[in-house]
Amino acid sequence: MHLSTLSKPISRFIHSQPTLCSHSGSQIYRAAMAADGPDTTAAPALFSPCKIGKIELSHRVVLAPLTRCRAPGELPNAAMEEYYTQRTTPGGLLITEGTSPSDRAAGFPRVPGIYKEEQVEAWKPIVDAVHAKGGIIFCQLWHVGRASHSVFQPVGLKPVSSTDKALPEKYKILLPDGSYDTHPEPHALSADEIPEIVDQYRSCALNAIKAGFDGIEIHSAHGYLIDQFLKDNINDRTDAYGGSLDNRTRFLFEVLDAVVSALGPERVALRISPAIMHLDGMDSNPLALGSAIVHRLNERQRRQWNGAKLAYLHVTQPRMLQYLTTNSSRGGPEEEEADLIKALRSAYDGTFMCSGGYTRELAIQAVESGEVDLVSFGRLFIANPDLVKRLRIDAPLNKYNRATFYSGDPVVGYTDYPFLEETETVVAAPLEGSRL
């Protein structure tokens, strides 16, 4: 029997099996696509179903967590509701902007929180609106650690961190009045102070579920608090939280274990960035760090969680990876970072998401090759509220305006980016006085 006679049954099988969000699933999908031969009507794997925990997604395009500074008073609001619902698709996953789990956690103006009852209540209409359109939404819990300033701290206290080393002066922080300043010297947390922060994550994870969120993502990347414990360029501790990989990953897993004990693993996700040097967050051996985290995750999934797995592991890869080609022979740092992503993907026993400079073509290639299960988009999703549709039909994309990313305006650069139908209408309309 020729393989082409099997193509449509196999394709139907793939598209009806949302659990195929793994190595084997990607391999089966590739086999099905090969069997389909030149049939170009088949949707790319990027638009095939996938499961995260017990939740079924209809496609693999994810809204990345994006700080937008549109929550005056740390309260979610109607403008945020419009922003998130604009980007909602049936069965699509949205991850919120970083959300503060305590009054010591913020490092940007107008960042929402979820540690007060009024904040929980303010999130509910947003979550309900996303659910009403069939979307899935996770809340990202984000503590910036030393990447803060006394103006964001209660009574002008120092920010907290794994260290008392301030960020280098080349890094500037945006203040509520629109000016920029250097970061102050942080307070190095004592071992006795750490359990309180762990409990704040647990408490706010429960608050997120109370607000109706489908799950939470723990932000452990990009040089923020948890990453300040993970990276040996920052962590200079000599106690149980510093030195060895076991020690440097201790805080991360204390937070993770506390949150999982409250929600179960399938409503919890983790974001890491072993190779990202943002906010001076370098590590002398990113592969060893990432591998240690993945190994401990796998052990928990097999032994402590009785086979249950995290909703997903979210790894950030450097933006410059988009410029790599498979024919490159430079063997430089970029290729080493690409190899790191592949190594972590190969080692991790669970759903694997990546972000960082993806185009439509790279995202399709990454999913169909089995390199990733899900792709999160940031800047492209800012400028294209209907990004999923545009990627699906390969439509032109709006350009983003970087100047409005953190401006605070509730409309401009936030909810006023046009949908595809609106741009098509503008193009199709004849100019006044034309002879068309």
UniProtKB/TrEMBL annotation:
<dbReference type="InterPro" id="IPR045247">
    <property type="entry name" value="Oye-like"/>
</dbReference>
<feature type="domain" description="NADH:flavin oxidoreductase/NADH oxidase N-terminal">
    <location>
        <begin position="46"/>
        <end position="396"/>
    </location>
</feature>
<keyword id="KW-0285">Flavoprotein</keyword>
<dbReference type="InterPro" id="IPR013785">
    <property type="entry name" value="Aldolase_TIM"/>
</dbReference>
<dbReference type="Pfam" id="PF00724">
    <property type="entry name" value="Oxidored_FMN"/>
</dbReference>
<keyword id="KW-0560">Oxidoreductase</keyword>
<keyword id="KW-0288">FMN</keyword>
<comment type="similarity">
    <text>Belongs to the NADH:flavin oxidoreductase/NADH oxidase family.</text>
</comment>
<keyword id="KW-0521">NADP</keyword>
<dbReference type="GO" id="GO:0009695">
    <property type="term" value="P:jasmonic acid biosynthetic process"/>
</dbReference>
<dbReference type="InterPro" id="IPR001155">
    <property type="entry name" value="OxRdtase_FMN_N"/>
</dbReference>
<dbReference type="GO" id="GO:0005777">
    <property type="term" value="C:peroxisome"/>
</dbReference>
<dbReference type="GO" id="GO:0031408">
    <property type="term" value="P:oxylipin biosynthetic process"/>
</dbReference>
<dbReference type="GO" id="GO:0010181">
    <property type="term" value="F:FMN binding"/>
</dbReference>
<protein>
    <recommendedName>
        <fullName>NADH:flavin oxidoreductase/NADH oxidase N-terminal domain-containing protein</fullName>
    </recommendedName>
</protein>
<dbReference type="GO" id="GO:0016629">
    <property type="term" value="F:12-oxophytodienoate reductase activity"/>
</dbReference>
